Every structure is written in structure tokens, then in C-alpha cells.
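Review form for a predicted model. The reviewer records the input and the model, then writes brief findings.
Reviewer: anonymous (R2)
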Amino acid sequence: MKQYFYLLMILLAGMNISSCTEKKGTSFADALDPSNMDTTVLPGKSFYQYATGGWQMKNPIPDEYARYGSFDKLRAENQHQIQTLIEELGAKENPAGTNAQKVGDLYSLGMDSVKLNQDGAAPIQAQLEEIAAAKDKNDIIRLMAKVSRYASNPFFGFYVGPDDKNSEMNIVHISQSGIGMNDRDYYLLADDHTKMVRKEYITLMETQFQHAGYEETAAKKAAANVMKIETALAQAHVTREMRRLPELNYHKMLVSELNTQVGDFEWQLYFESLGAPAFDSLNVAQIEPVKAAITLIKNEPVAALQDYLSWKVINSAANFLSDDFVQANFAFYGKTMSGSKELRPRWRRTVDAVNGALGEAVGQLYVEKYFPAEAKERMLNLVENLKVSLGERISQLEWMEDETKSKAQEKLNTFIVKIGYPDKWKDYSALEIKKDSYWQNMVRASEFEYEDMLADLGKPVDKTKWYMSPQTVNAYYSPSSNEICFPAGILQPPFFYMDGDDALNYGGIGVVIGHEMTHGFDDQGRKFDKDGNLTDWWTSADAQKFDERAKVLVDYFDQIIVLDTVHANGTFTLGENIADHGGLQVAYQAFQKTTQAQSGELLGGFTPAQRFFLSYANLWAGNVRDAEILRLTKVDSHSLGRWRVDGALPHIDAWYEAFNIQPSDPMYLPKEARASIW
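Model under review:
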């Protein structure tokens, strides 16, 4: 899918909703639970600990989690709601071909541990045998294309999405891909932790190849071949910091130019094997990694390439096979990489799988039961208040020229706002869910989505399309369509309170709305115009001033030590840090117009301003394991929860006033050292 999506959290997750009411009552005070706080810590020493220390004590990390915070807790509660819906379907005899039959049968297959363990590796044998039968490089290319339709992309990625410089049309994009450990650093760094992770990854491959039927010696050889290929791919991969620069990841060219500009390859065979309709141009996002992948396909023996493709199938299928596959997968990806102690219950894993395969089918049931009819209208009103606030802030910027301000206002005023659920639901009639095997159904679901994607090629972009299911606990901004989206799943406490006071809601979902809006003007989003096209609409002087102001946040977050001697990555997290900063500023300014803010009346012992910031901090309450801190610092463009509070608030003037933060407080920053962008 389109690369440039800015999520509130890296987890696929969203909430249920509250109005922007101005009632008063004890229930409002109760909603801000004082037992979540740790008042032994001063607000200016660690506001995160002050506001959420009690929550951390009450909510130790369950063994099945690597990180457990308010997001995760809400997501877990959402899963219970979805489980109830799905099990109600499973208890009925649903007509064949209906969404109810598909959801119910897929869930039943995922829960049938007896069948899964009896089947063992049988569901993937036909795919592995087809790969084993490859005789030459053309066979490898055909299989590479076939595998990419249902498993993680081998060698490099292919997807259809909006043209960055012509956002009205969908084109083909090719990008770096093909590694099993998420980031190039896992293959290249020489510190003890990373070397340990690499060793355990090789052990995982050896184990899973044997589970798939390889003899021990053959499994070790296959694992070595895969590691060699993936390491070579990783060496050519563009860094995560470079991927944040959209202008460096756009290389549109004719298909006829691929052999000379990227690499001599059987491109036509590859595209035909994917099932793609004819097209004449495409974007190669990262040329050098794709070129390196082509070189590997040319130079590596067929046997090594077969091992690599087989691993893509085995690793993608592992969570949908017998317990030996699942446990080995968890031992590496769960325990070694993230620090989780225990595999999540089967029902939770299966709910996630059904959500992934039939997201809008489940979502339609979810919103009917859990999303109030008035919620959408209330959210639209709140979004409008935030838009007004951001518009005012743009108008008041001292550092920006009128020419750029005018275009920024145009962009803001053309935001597409999506709330709750889509107006038109996805049609799953072409997707068949059978009772053959869990994995084969996941293959069919993946191929259904792939065909749906291919159908967009060469056609105008559908601006009504949703890129998250309604039950997701998250939110996003898409620069190519200039849209902000808030699924029903995120419109629940601690983000939105149906009967909550304004301070809670502006400090919660209000900041989330402001966060997603600000993504349209962060270090990446600002490079796309009101129509979603990658173009330079800034004066050179304003662009320079923006970069100077953004560098304040880069430098500040670079100095943060997340664990031992490991620092946060201010460049990689810049977009999210700008969005948090802007979200706080915009939401607080909008909140100041409410009757509650203007009254200054205490509620639950706190002023309205204090409740606003306490509400914000509660969004990020949580605990995280050391291994997960290290992993997230490598792969997540968001700062860790602690630093979304203690790293963001020192740059917000209103926070100093609300809690009387003084120069003697550890979190205090002189005003001239604070970031000021939007």
C-alpha cells in the first residue's frame, strides 16, 4: 500500500466517542482517576510519572505483551467486543457466501487447534513443492511474483497506489523489501544485542525448515542461504531516515527504461506473473535496493533462491499452522525481539487474523452494535473546532510569509475528514472461505486484496476508500489524499468520553485530531500540496525557517537516552514529534474557547488546564520491556510513550503555566530553547 501514512500509533488499532459537552458533575471528575497518578513525583521532574505512575503500578505488563499501555488495554477490550460478535455468528448456521459465514468459518478454523495440529505442515506443502520444482531463473521470477501475492514480498515490493506527483491516478510502485527482521540494522550492526538477535533468527529458520519437512543438514544449509541473501538485500537498503524524504523516494520512469535505469531483468515476465494489466510507467521508490535484488537473482544459484522463496512462504504461514510453527515463531519475534514472555491466547490471535482478512465485514457488525449514531456528528464538530484553531495559528505565524500562509490555509481547508466507518462497505463476494485449512483461507484473503489492489491500476484514485477498518484503535493522515481518518475503534476512553468534560476530550481525542492535522504540515506532509501532490509550495525562505525550527526537536530528542546508552532517534521520529507538538498546541488553543476553560473552575481538584494535560498524558500511560524499547527505537517512527509526554510538554508554554513549572525543575526548558513550529 501507499508508503506515506502517518499513524497515531505503529500498532494497528482506534475508540468510541464522547461529545464536547460542558456539563458539570462528579462523574466528570471520576473520569480522571487520581489513582492513575503518582503525586510523590513533582510535575516538573517527570510529568509522565506524575500523571501515569499509578496506572503503571496497577497495570503490570501481562506475560503475552512486550508493551502494555492505554492503547493496548483499549485494544484488548475491543477484541473482547469483536470476539462476542464473531462467536455469535459462529453459533448460527449462516447461508453460504454471506459475510457472516465467512467471518464465522474463518474464526472457527483459527480456533480449531486439533485440526491445525493434525494438518501440521500439510497446508504449505503444495506451495513448497512448486518452488522446489523450479528449474531456471525464469521459474524463480514467476514464483517470486506468485509468492508476493500472499506472503511477504520476496526481493522487492510491488504495490499500486496514488502517483506522488499526480495524486488523482493510481500507478505501480516498486520498493525495497525482502528481509525478515524489519530493518537493515538487524543485519548490519555489530553490538552484542544485535548479534544475538541474528543468531536467534538463524535458529528460527533452521527450526522452521525442519518443521516444514527438511532434514537437519538441509535445514541448516537453507537457513544459511536465506541469511546470505537477506543480508545482501539489507546492505543495499535505504536507511529509515532516508525513507522519510519523499522526494528521494520518487523515481518515475517508463517500463521500457527499467532495464537501463534499474537493472536488466525479465520485467514483462514478472509483471505478467503478478497478473498486472498492461501499464507504461511506474515509480521505483528506491533504485539501488531493487538493483541489488536483481543482481542477487542473477548471481545466486537456483537452489539458494528456492530456499529463500520457501522461507518467505514458511515464515508468512507460521502463525496459521500447527503449534510447533507458532511457538517457534513466537520464540523469536515475541521473546527475542520484543521480550514478551507468553504467547497471546489463541482467540486473540484469531480475532486479529479475521480482522485482517475481513476487516470491513467485521467492522460493519462492530459499528452497528458499538458506535452511537450521534457520534459521527459530534466528532465532525470537534474536528471543525480544531481546524479553526489550526487556521488561526497559521495566520498568526511570525516566521512565515503570506504567500506560504495562503497555501497552507488552502491545504487545511481541503482536508478530507473520515470518521467512524466508510459510507460504502467493501464487497467480499469474490472471496471464498472454505473449510480446507486456516492457511489456505489466509492465502485466498491475501489474493483477494491483491486483486482488489491491481484493479485500481491506471484508474483514478478512490478518495472514499478507507485504509483502516472501523474497529481499529488508531488514526491516520494520508498526504496523497490529504485526508484524516478516525475509526470508530479509537472513539472511546481514554481518548473520547461520551459524557466527559471538555478538558478530557480536548486533551484526549482533541490532541489526536490536532496530531493528524499537523501531519499535513510536518517534515514530510508539508511537501505535499492541497491536492496531495508532491510539490514545493513553500518559499525558499520559509522552507529554511521550517527546517531550522524542526531541528530544535531533532536535537532535543537525539539527547534522550531511552535505555542504558541507547539514544532516541530525533530524525526518524521527527514527523511524529512535530505532530504531537502541533496537536497539543492546536487542541489547547481550541479548548481555550470553551466555557470550562474560561471559567477556570476546579473539577476533581484540578484546573481545566491541568485536566487537559493530565488527559493527554493518560493516552500514553504504559509499561514496556527493555527488549521492546530497543526494537521500537529501531523500527517505530513514534517516540516511546514516556517521551511523547516528557519530551513533548517541555516545548508547550501553557503546560508551564498550568503546573507552575520553574527553572529549578528538571524538565524546564528556557523559552528560547523550546520548539515553536505550528
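Findings: DSSP finds 28 helices and twelve strands in the chain.
Further findings: The radius of gyration is 25 Å.
Recommendation: see findings above.
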